[in-house]
Amino acid sequence: MNAPATPPSPYSSAIGKSNAESHTLSVLVDNEPGVLARVVGLFSGRGFNIESLTVAEVTHETHLSRITIATSGTPEVVEQVRHQLERLVPVHSVTDLTLTVRAIERELAMVKVRGKGENRVEALRLAEAFRAKVIDATIESFIFELTGAPRKIDDFVELMRPVGLVEVSRTGIAAISRGPEPI
Amino acid sequence: MSKQMTGAEMVVEALKDQGVDVLFGYPGGAVLPIYDAIFHQNKLRHVLVRHEQGAAHAAEGYARSTGKVGVLLVTSGPGATNAVTGLTDALLDSIPLVCITGQVPTHLIGSDAFQECDTIGITRSCTKHNYLVRRIEDLPRILHEAFYVATSGRPGPVVIDIPKDIQFATGAYTFQKNIQHKTYRPQVKGDLGRIKQAVEMMAKARKPVFYTGGGVINSGPTASTLLREIVRLTGFPITSTLMGLGAYPASDKQWLGMLGMHGSFEANNAMHDCDLMICVGARFDDRITGRLDAFSPHSKKIHIDIDASSINKNVKVDLGIVGDCAHVLEDMVRLWRTSAAKADPAALVKWWGHIDHWRARNSFAFRNSNKIIKPQHAVRRLYELTRDRDVYITTEVGQHQMWAAQHFHFDEPNRWMTSGGLGTMGYGLPAAIGAQMAHPNSLVIDIAGEASILMNMQEMSTAAQYRLPVKIFILNNQYMGMVRQWQELLHGGRYSESYTESLPDFVKLAQAYGAHGIRCSDPADLDAAIKEMIDTPQAVIFDCLVDQKENCFPMIPSGKAHNEMLLADLGDDAGIEIGSVIDEKGKMLV
Fold first, then answer.
1. Which residue out of B39, B114, B508, B588 is catalytically annotated?
2. Residue B284 in contact with residue B260, Cβ under 8 Å?
3. Which of A78, A101, A124 is the last residue of a domain?
4. Residue B509 burial (CB count, 10 A)
5. Which one of the listed residues B115, B187, B458, B538 is annotated catalytic?
6. pTM of the predicted model as reported, rounded to 2 decimal places
7. How far does the CA of residue A150 sit from the closest CA of chain B (Å)?
């Protein structure tokens, strides 16, 4: 008997195989103590990947928080991640934004660059091209603020490297579905 | 109507309102106010265990044998950490528990106070849900919500961590029946379209098999009744996991016996060769599937489970139905009755012909002896001599557990309590205590091994205190038998640390605990000794000295498929050559 074409188990198909995909999940949870630990613990306990995770309370009256998690794995693994999250008692809903709708993903980064002379001019010129804002400046440094898709931020950071990149702080992904409907 | 009372009184009041009559626990500094509230009433019966792990297993035994929630009460720090094994056990076997833990006063949390531990952090991954109570106003809701969460959907353990100052604080207590969690609403009704599809698949099947599990028992007695009905209506064969024994009567001719690593030849071959598998409340655990990529390669698979994450987790199925077994089976029975299409009788006859051929191999057979007690024989005699009685069986973990599952037969659910998922040695005695508390006039027997029983032996003292006539039937081979068997299989018979050179004298130990001790080593004396055990009105430790070298067969070795079972070789005294059957890849598995 040949091995079946599809891996029989999400646990037996090692993450990082060729059919691994990146998915962004939106998880609505009760903002109660320990809820983030529950979500994060689930990922570490079951060997799932977290590529990015952001969380903030989005409805103050009902104490609802939205956790946006970028994860990767085979489609079976991602489905398993979703079901495991849904089992958690304080979880209201889990939406795989990658599967259901084309989502908009944004991330904010603050990028510190140090340099003088031509490098400094070049950094500022590139920042303008990326529509990054200068939010702090000294004689020998800038801090740029940049929002965009994660890919754009990656690109910007790479460009800053030769002109004096010192430090990067990124927020991780926030995502929302397109169109008039909520998730 | 709300009443003013202290947090500690709320705990007692809520337990009463939830219909709890027994709780298992151990006092300590951080739960003293609750123990004081228990002192002031006489409706709730508290069973003082000797170790908090015992409290958790006793609560499991109580829950499993009654279908109700098991409740335990332990103190902060070591009280909570000692309960962790029992909580994990309950999580893996889906047993509803509510565990109340004391905690240091709120203002001391995080200061490394005496007997402080991060109970919520520690138990987060071994409970279905847990709560730290921060305000007295939240306590009544949390207490009742805990029972809802423990029993709704897939059952499991819930921890409520209550700081001591909250136990002393006064607040308003209210109780409404049928409380619901604001978000947690498990789906109990299965999707009708999918159930219809399942019935259509069943009508087309030529080689079907029902594969059922603990979910049927957790779903309640109705699920067992409906399972019997659908199996009878369809005429399909049925097998079950270790956790599901009793949901379908073992005495019925459609029953194939347990499946899995130590399951029957006919059950495992039917699973391998079937063209339709109908999984009801089981989870394709690795003890069941064996080698995954060779698991039942030619079948369509239907999976009914209340937990959506169980579906497609280990094995990809063709039709998943999320819902409670009883609800789904009810719809399935109705649709099957009204559906015109039925499985081809001629095909079924042929299929049963295959099964009878496998059955004829009599895979649970063993070579008996008149010189030495064979462990299988001991379990069989125990079964025969107790079968007309109202009996509950618990086990520890190891060879004796598998022999009990193979040779003791159950016709009713909730009669069999064993640690399936976690495989916790030391489970059986406290679980027997829990079951005996719930069924004081029944015969409760812990089928044990001499190694496992020592792990929670201290609970004999609990049995003595409450005059619980639990019977401990030890299959004593002086080895951690399953470890020894695997060392024979995998490690060239190098029995590293699996032999216990110094065992207590179990007869004297029984006497020390105020119980009755029996020792038996001669097969000729076995029946009389078992009868003596049954007729003894107090607790008994039965030290049954059995063949030390007996292996548990049949067996699917690690990394092998269902149709690659090892069977006991009955024709040869030397027994089966098992040293070389597991390949390198299999050795990496558990």
1. B114
2. no
3. A101
4. 18
5. B115
6. 0.93
7. 30
